[in-house]
Amino acid sequence: MVSRCEAHEVEDRGLAAAHEWMEDPDHATTRWLRRTRWMWHGIPSAPRCKMCYRPFGLPAGPFLRLAGLGPWTGNPKYCTGCFRNLYRDREGAEIDCTLLFADIRGSTQLAESMSMSEFRSHMDRFYTAAAAALIPHDAIVDKFVGDEVIGIFIPALTEGNHARQGIDAARDLLRATGHDTDEPWVPIGIGVNTGRAFVGVVGSAQHTEFTALGDAVNVTARLASVAAAGEILVTEASATSAGLESADVYERRSLDLRGHSETTEVAVVTLAPS
Asked: pTM, whole model, 2 decimals?
C-alpha cells in the first residue's frame, strides 16, 4: 500500500516534470510537441486536436481515425493519443504564461438578426479564423466557449516570448475578422494578460482538459468582456514583457474590473483601416 508521503512524492515529481517541460524550450517533450504541431499544421484539415494539431477533417482525418487517432469520444477537442497521455500523466504546474481571450461583441443581437443555421455558420467561421490566427503563434487553443475563444501561450512552445506572441496573435485575429477594414464581418474585443497561472491537466477519465486556472485567467476574461469591437486590451505586465512600443498603443486606460479591488492598467492596441 502506498503511503501518503510516497503519494505526495510522486505528485511532486509529476509537478516538477511538468514545470520543467512547460518552461524549457529545449526539453525533449517540448521539442517533440513543437515538431508534431509543425508537421500537422501543414495539413489544411480543420478541425484538429488542440494539443498536437492532428487533423480530424478531410483529407487526413479518416486515415487517422482508422489508426485509432481520431477525436476522443470523451472530449473531441483532443485526439485519442493525446487524451490517453494527458489522463495518464495528469501533469500541471504554476508558470508564467500569457492568456488571450477573444469575445464577440453583441452576439445576442447578431443571433437575432439571422437564422440559427446562419448563426452557426457564422460562429464556425469565427472559430476557424481564431484557430488559424492563434496556432501559428504557438498558442494552445484552450476553448471555444459560446462566443469566446481562449488561447494559452506558454514559455516552452513560444521559446520564452509568450507575451509578444500573444499580442501578435491578437493582432492577426483582428485582421482575420476584418478589423483592418471599415466593416469587420464579426465584431470582437480581445484581452491579453501575462501572469502566473496553473497550466496543465484537470478533469476525470470521462472529461480531461489541458487548461489554465487562476487570477491571471480571470483578469484576461474581464478584459475581453470590456474591450470594444476592434480593441486589444493589453495589461501592463504583457506590454512590458513584450516590449510594446508607444507607437503601437492607441491609448492607456485605468480599469476597475469586476471582482478586483485594484485598478488594472492597460494599453489599448487597434489596427488602422487599410
From this structure: 0.76
